[in-house]
Amino acid sequence: MKTKQLLLSILMLLATMAAQAQCPIDNKAVASGEFLSYNLYFNWKFVWVKVGTASLSTVSTKYKGKDAFRSSLITRGNGKLDKFFVMRDTLLGYISPTMSPFYFRKGAVEGDRYTVDEVWYEYPNGKCKVKLHRQKHDKTHQWTDKTSEYCIYDMLNIFTRARNFDPAEWKKGHTLKFPVADGNSINNGILTYQGKEKVEGDDGKKYNCLKLTYSEWSNSKQKYKELATFFVTDDNNHIPVRIDITLNFGNAKAFVSSMKGVRKN
């Protein structure tokens, strides 16, 4: 997993596999006007260097005439990171007030390559139907339709919905499985609860956090591979404060630098 996926992985860390496709729930975490900022760091020759920033915003809007939240995630690398690869990602997601996904788009720049992933959601007869679209770097297009008895999410919409999970009864080692869609496939992920820790953000504040590890299925190894460790606030908002990740060419971290408009519970 590349450094550019560091903040994107946040969006995949908190999900439960629901029994019904649309999975409407009461929203107790996400507020319109919320804005979260992060600093990204990379371990270069045993020195932690700031290599970029990320921001996530949420506002109330309409999607095809329906009430919705619109979330935007923007990641930007600086010149120190560009020698490894260019990080210029923009993600857009729409989700219902009851946290059911409507639409997802990711535009990603990797060097001189530009790709687009899109996912459209429908809920016919209690099922979840998704249309997947990928525009490849050579500007060719790939389209796929999939239908599931279970909820399907994406790396952005899952963040707003799953922040409403309730970990009160979790014990160390508790695991959750969930499906996540991109532009051409649906992948399996596992979240494992590792207990509680106090973590300091780049805003100088200390937070009581839940510690979780995230793993993805590896087809080549035919097993789940642990990719990252997340620290999220131990409250109703479940905001990611810190993310640690091991890369093929080093280690990376993200720390929250500011929070605005967070819902009061």
Topology:
Layout: H1 6-10, E1 34-44, E2 47-63, E3 66-77, H2 79-82, E4 88-95, E5 101-110, E6 113-122, E7 128-135, E8 141-148, E9 153-154, H3 157-162, E10 175-181, E11 186-200, E12 206-218, E13 223-233, E14 240-247, E15 250-260
Parallel strand pairs: 9-10
Antiparallel strand pairs: 1-2, 1-15, 2-3, 3-4, 4-5, 5-6, 6-7, 7-8, 10-11, 11-12, 12-13, 13-14, 14-15
Summarize it:
By secondary structure, the protein is mainly beta. Helix content is 6%, strand content 57%.
Structural commentary:
With 265 residues, the chain is mainly beta. The chain contains three helices and 15 strands. It has helices at residues 6-10, 79-82, 157-162, and strands at residues 34-44, 47-63, 66-77, 88-95, 101-110, 113-122, 128-135, 141-148, 153-154, 175-181, 186-200, 206-218, 223-233, 240-247, 250-260. The chain is globular, with a radius of gyration of 18 Å.
Give, in order, the helices and strands. Answer: HEEEHEEEEEEHEEEEEE
What Rg do the Cα atoms give? 18 Å
Average pLDDT across residues? Answer: 83
Alpha plus pi helix count: 3
Strand content: over 45%
Q: Give the overall silhouette.
A: globular
Write out the strand line-up for the largest beta sheet, numbering strands in chain order. 8-7-6-5-4-3-2-1-15-14-13-12-11-10-9
Which structural class do you get from the secondary structure elements? mainly beta
Number of strands: 15
Low-confidence stretches: 14-22
Q: How far is the first residue's CA from the last residue's CA? A: 35 Å
Largest sheet data: 15 strands, mixed
The helix content is under 10%
